[in-house]
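Reference record:
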Amino acid sequence: MTDRDELARLLWERTTIPRRGPRPTLTTTAIANAGIEIADTNGLAAVTMQQVAETLGVTKMALYRYLPGKAELIGLMTDAAIGQPPTAHPELVGWRARLDFWSRRMFEVFHRHPWVLETAVGNRLMGPNEIAWIETLVTALADSGLDGGEQLDVAATLAGHVRSLVQQELSTDHTAAESTESTLAGIIEEHANRFPALATALGSASAPPNRAFDFGLARILDGVESLITRRTGRPPHRDSDQVDR
């Protein structure tokens, strides 16, 4: 059995009982949750089999009765941290409101478990929770007029937007950023003759700062809506745009 086969068994069959040895005292769920606690507190680099074992009060070798190693542990942690997709409120009618809701809940997951930004990438085996998030989005677009490939592209585009904005926010020292922005605004105002378009834009800006997530999400959904409208001839349903944020 390859490492990927073993991870597939752990993720999808939810096999938690060791196939040999003494009666088990742990579950893979408990082991994954211990790893998540460590990663949330101290970062992904702090997660080791030894540290997880100490958190659970067992020996490192005891963990190997449940999973082969750290790679499988990280796979289980990732799917557990992502969790089940949220259930949209009944009043959220239409694909746009549901995709807006989906994106905001995904933002919360990545913000709560920032290390998942490192683990939920690349050529890897996804677990049932992560697949369920994609299923939820594709279901929302099922009658939209987009084909399957386009629906998956929408999922990838929204996920990419969420990831990039979470990374940007987590890496920003907001106090320093506000100070820098204030200084920069003063410089541009002083040199308005050199940067007239930028000075005018800053002077007329009415929206609150740090609105890139909302702005980008709305523009992505505008683009999807435009494509759907051209494809189907159906007018957009603006009454479904309000989302519980």
Summary: Residues 95-234 form a domain with the Tetracycline Repressor; domain 2 fold (CATH 1.10.357.10).
